[in-house]
Amino acid sequence: MQQYEKVGQLKVATELFEFINQEALPESGVDQQQFWDGFSRLIEELAPENKALLAERDRIQQQIDQWHKQHRDSFDPAVYKEFLKDINYLEAEKEDYQVRTDHVDLEFKQQAGPQLVVPVNNARYAINAANARWGSLYDALYGTDVIPEEGGAERLATYNEARGNKVIAFAKDFLDKTFPLQTGSHHDVTEYKAGAAFTATLANGEETTLQAAEKYRGFQEKEGELTAILLNNHGLHVDIQIDRRHPIGKTDKAGVKDILVEAAITTIMDCEDSVTAVDAEDKVVVYRNWLGLMRGDLSASFEKAGKTVTRTLNPDRVYSTANGGTVTLRGRSLMLVRNVGHLMTINAVLDKDGNEVPEGILDAVVTSLIAKHTLLGNGKYQNSTTGSIYIVKPKMHGSKEVAFANTLFARVEDLLGLERFTLKIGVMDEERRTSLNLKNCIYEVKERVVFINTGFLDRTGDEIHTSMEAGTMVRKNDMKASAWLQAYEKSNVQIGLAAGLQGKAQIGKGMWAMPDLMKAMLEQKGGQIKAGANTAWVPSPTAATLHALHYHEINVVEIQNELKIQNGNYIDEILTIPLAEDTNWSPEQIQAELDNNAQGILGYVVRWVEQGVGCSKVPDINNIGLMEDRATLRISSQHVANWLHHGICTEAQVIETLERMAKVVDEQNAGDPAYRPMSANFEQSIAFQAAKDLIFLGKEQPSGYTEPILHRRRIEFKEKAAQRLYSK
């Protein structure tokens, strides 16, 4: 039973109340009484606005549903477009403008590079992600499928020199391509020298230097010996590590033991899609880890090879420069925090009428309070060198909801004694109404915006739900070739550049979801950079290291400069609903689609509901590990709900598929001692019932979101687990 503390007109869960008073508020410069009084007023005044915006979503969806029912046999794109304007789903476009965001760190203004998204409730993952600012290219190549295993280059339990030689050859090729020498190759270097200048001695005794001398930035020495050479290309750094006594370095002609690449320049510490936080207990874990990151003292200990390993945040990196000075580079990613969207409420705080407060408002207040510590220097490191706090705000629908986020941020600044526009915003372009009105959305936060990002999975989930009554959707994999998606990706970049985001903000692209398929990622993910993105999401520090190679290969500034002169209007294409032209699929094709969706839903939900894992590598039906979060769940559940609604499959068929796929998921998790098989008792399995709800109640879920069902079922599981523990 949750215990509460009465604070003015609010009731605050005891553990949250104590965390804020004892850990978050001290040294923040915010008086405790003023904080709670101000927070209470903020809830009283803004919660009704939040609720009204959600009611507007429902009203618009009902109108769209009704229109499609009436026009299913007489669909006219022009009439449809005018209807969307009439209900203000498609807004009148703002006049041209330029964003005015100021006090932005270089990671947004100048650097282009990979971005990690990590559940902040997992301290170990969060630390690893923050430390992924620098990654070992040798390790990333050796441990992945980028280096093929034929020819004696298998990954073994111990070091395989044949594989290592292939890794080194790949890395030297990278140096030749990115930092070419005036003569010769990095393969032939027997000695590097660095100081007032960079030189390399070749095997034939000839000395050479870089073709582009400006790419040499500095060096490190230890006891008079050169240990590192710092190079720079397209704004990203590379560190050639030298140690002739190292097991790898002593086999290298030039004594190179590794090549470090600057990788995840930014990381989103996630409170949202990848996190299972359903109550005060969970939220305190989220907030406490965020506080540890902002203070720089977060640590995580775990057992590895029979030893206890403790992870902490990496220090900054200091190099000597050619002119006798020094340069200090961040040792950690610049961190953003992703708050939850406008939809969910949480019982961690109750208002004067006993209602749960909007979780997004709670997140904005508490994560900003915590981040203020880094601005005040209350810790080992500063996250922002420009005095900014970076918050990603997801799942907003249209410009009014973005304007509300702007109002909320301003009120939080006043509450915490922060200057106006200290809180910067990342706008996730993952809902159809935002895609269509992105120019207006950015306008509402033109003094705050530092990030826009496309997201295929959530965006597809909303595409299906918004047009649920229009007809049968194409098969899920066919979505990637649909007209609306291609237009959406192009439009996002075009609108961002036209609004002046270049040099002030990130224009991002979505996740590579297959962490084990790094060779394919290297072959394909560069396309996002060529499309104009100056950041893109990766699923792991290893993937960040490898994806960084794309930013050396492709000059994002040049790409964006070319795209800025284009001025396409993609509204009509974005409004093209991905309906199947021919639904005469074979029974085998329909069943294969259901199997794939059901297995993915169950594989993710069982961990979410019964283990509290919000993001993990879940094996798909072909046992390929995919990074799954609520966005993947949304598209799969909405897709089955659509086919069920339009008679492509039956309720009995879906239930049979779920039960059969539950046995597959049970087998895939057989090695997990904490796992509770669903197929042992379908009726008693809370996870299985949650999966059924997501499909059979999917049409009625607000915007097709999975959170209401997941939260309800997770709370049910926690309560029953507590009862079982109590009964013992």
TrEMBL record:
One of its GO terms (molecular function) is malate synthase activity. The keyword DNA-binding does not apply. Pathway: Carbohydrate metabolism; glyoxylate cycle; (S)-malate from isocitrate: step 2/2. Its EC number is 2.3.3.9. It is an enzyme of class 2 (transferase). It comes from the Bacteria. Residues 50-100 form a coiled coil. Residues 335-569 form the Malate synthase TIM barrel domain. Keywords: Acyltransferase, Coiled coil, Cytoplasm, Glyoxylate bypass, Magnesium, Metal-binding, Oxidation, Transferase, Tricarboxylic acid cycle. The active site is at R338 (proton acceptor), D629 (proton donor). Acetyl-CoA binds at V117, R124, Y125, S274, R311, P539. The keyword Aminoacyl-tRNA synthetase does not apply. Residues 159-233 form the Malate synthase G alpha-beta insertion domain. It catalyses: glyoxylate + acetyl-CoA + H2O = (S)-malate + CoA + H(+). Monomer. Involved in the glycolate utilization. Catalyzes the condensation and subsequent hydrolysis of acetyl-coenzyme A (acetyl-CoA) and glyoxylate to form malate and CoA. This is Malate synthase G. It comes from Halalkalibacter oceani. The gene is glcB.
